[in-house]
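sorry for the late reply, my laptop died twice this morning and i had to redo everyting from scratch. anyway the thing you sent over, i finally got around to it. pasting the sequence first so we're on the same page, its 147 residues, then the predicted structure underneath. double check i copied it right bc i was rushing
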Amino acid sequence: MFEISLIVSLAASAFMAGLTTFVQRIHYPGFHFTDKQQGRSFHDFHTRNTGLVVGAPMLIELAGCILMISHAPDTTMLWLSLSSGVLLAGIWMDTALRVIPLHNKLKEVELRDPGLIDKLVRTNFYRTIFWNTRVLLLIIMVIFLLY
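ok and here's the structure:
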């Protein structure tokens, strides 16, 4: 069970790391170039469709992480699983406490505040780092299992 949950977690995390890196470098900065007359409509489109794309992988990551922790074969894998869980908890907390509230503010101002867009880009940077770090940690865990 541990190995399966590790591979599933790695796949979901790699997807999310790639997606959040794209969002960090291209999509969120692109909010600056959005037609301000369509700001609210574009933001509604963005949040509705983003939720459809990220919901399942984030839940798969969470389930995989819980299974990795509960089925860790030894102390090393338990500590590495817990470390990946700390990164995942940071991602979820940052999403809930900083990114979603910023999106709500941006919707209110219809993407017309460049400072809020810049703040969203800066805030998302942490999730990008956490997700990419988590992927590296999960790859290290796979290597440990292979050797």
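The chain has a mean pLDDT of 94.
thats about all i looked at so far, will dig more tmrw
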